[in-house]
Amino acid sequence: xxxxxxxxxxxxxxxxxxxxxxxxxxxxxxxxxAHGRGEAFDYLLGETTTxxxxxxxxxxxxxxxxxxxxxxxxxxxxxxxxxxxxGELARATGALVEVNLFxxxxxxxxxxxxxxxxxxxxxxxxxxxxLLPLSxxxxxxxxxxxxxxxxxxxxxxxxxxxxxxxxMGKTVITIDLNxxxxxxxxxxxxxxxxxxxxxxxxxxxxxxxxxxxxxRLVRDHDNTRLLAEAxxxxxxxxxxxxx
Length: 243
Ligand code: ATP
Ligand code: MG
Description:
The protein has 243 residues and is an alpha/beta fold. It has one domain (51-233): Phosphopantoate/pantothenate synthetase (Rossmann fold). It has ten helices and seven strands. It has helices at residues 9-23, 29-45, 51-66, 76-93, 106-118, 159-167, 182-186, 195-208, 211-220, 223-239; strands at 70-74, 96-99, 129-130, 140-141, 151-153, 171-175, 189-191. Helix 1 (9-23) packs antiparallel against helix 2 and helix 4 crosses helix 5 (106-118). The mean pLDDT is 97.
């Protein structure tokens, strides 16, 4: 048991979840490494949702509100860390939930689907087809899910897949603690925040949003500004680390 008064409680709980999910066949060992990269950037953010990230989360809610066919794409790390929050966001936005894996096997697909279902998430099922302009199994998705989406949330996404989705004309929202990643730089909306902090904020913003606010946020959205603000916060942390 991790003591609740440990200063790194949240981080240790997240690591334990990832480790348990590796044992359960939900997260691949490469996913544990990707988690570590995220943690390093979160340290530079102060492990908190910055005002800029909170704004990005509201903007994401606005794009969801204006979507005709929103989809949430879930991978192993996302399922391991945030199954309940995915369900909550799906209910708040009316988005479909599709499991989409970089390291895809039918066993893993089934394990993740079961884990999500156990946490109250209804997962879209069907025959995956090679519909994304990518080589290998990364191209696989559901015709009535990711392929048909106009707005898609891809947390912790690989840069290549993010680029392919943008090239298909979709509005791509990502959650990625690394503002320098290709995913962060390619997405339509980049939320530089930790997954488990970001998801409930998007759901809460969506529940209280008016169409008027959604229109304004979509119109005024500037992703380069979001990235610059995240980088400025990180620079600030480093500049004052020895004060
Ligand atoms: P890219 O291919 O986009 O240039 P990458 O190779 O770093 O970047 P991956 O490792 O495929 O991307 O994806 C993981 C990304 O998700 C990393 O950028 C990492 O910083 C981020 N990340 C990991 N865990 C979390 C988390 N819990 N919350 C938010 N972001 C996270
Ligand atoms: Mg990558």
